[in-house]
What we know:
Elements: H1 2-22, E1 23-26, E2 30-36, E3 39-40, E4 49-52, E5 59-65, E6 69-72, E7 76-79, E8 85-96, H2 99-105, H3 109-128, H4 146-165, E9 167-179, H5 181-252, H6 254-269
Antiparallel strand pairs: 1-4, 2-3, 2-5, 6-8, 7-8, 8-9
Helix pairs in contact: 3-4
Amino acid sequence: MKNIAITIFILLIVLVLVLYFVSFQVRETESVVVTTFGEPRQEDIVKPGWYWKWPPPIEVVYRFDSRLQLYEGIMEETTTKGGEPIIVTSYVLWKITEPRKFLESVSTIQGAEDHLRSRLREKQNSIIGQHYFSEFVNTDPVRIKFADIERDIFETLKEPMRQEYGIEVKAVGIKQLGISEKVTEDVFARMRADRTRIADATISEGKAEATKIRSDAESKRKELLAAVDALAKSIKGAGDAEAAKYYKMLEDEPDFAKFLRDLEALKKILKERSTIVLSGQTEPFKLLREMPNIEPKK
């Protein structure tokens, strides 16, 4: 019984070894290239499953990770169109889409990243050199062209990497942007100059507007004063004419004028409650006893 168990165990080990040498598994996250005497099979294996093969060295299995890969470049200095130096750190998202071409051209992830590094540096410097510094750093968001620059680098990398290395570039971006101390000082100096210019222009416009408002107000004031003065003169002239008419009437009727004067005086005296003891003949109280005989002149 013991010998049978040992025999079965040995057979299982042999079976596992045979399966190991003549078959292989492809996982969901893998793509595989099988070479026969160093030459790749006609088709790459990208679907997960269990596959058969000849044992080595007849056939060899090369596995590649088919998931997205992130390559992050180092900080490198480059120059903008205006000559200002800037320091950028870029990244690339990529994946292996043609395993056979990838195997023949670079073989490993490290080899792919070496090629990505040199290509990214070349395209990055070329594209950034077509843009001014103000398109990277600006107080006006509309003038910043980060998205356009990243898109241009992506477009120049995408097709060459696919054709030459079997790599599909999914995205390119600028992770970090740095500038030297001198450039920083120059940028802030320009920003201060721009702010000062805008402030001076605003103050100048304000002063011009204030002068215009004061001028308009002074003009309107003079117009109103002239109109009021003319109206006052007109009213005064009408009053003088009316008064002259009454003065003429009073000159012609002196008794009537004296009567009106006494009546006005009596009105003022009796305006408030008062007790006054005077002769009945005292002016103007005699008006309380009898009306004067006033006849108009003919």
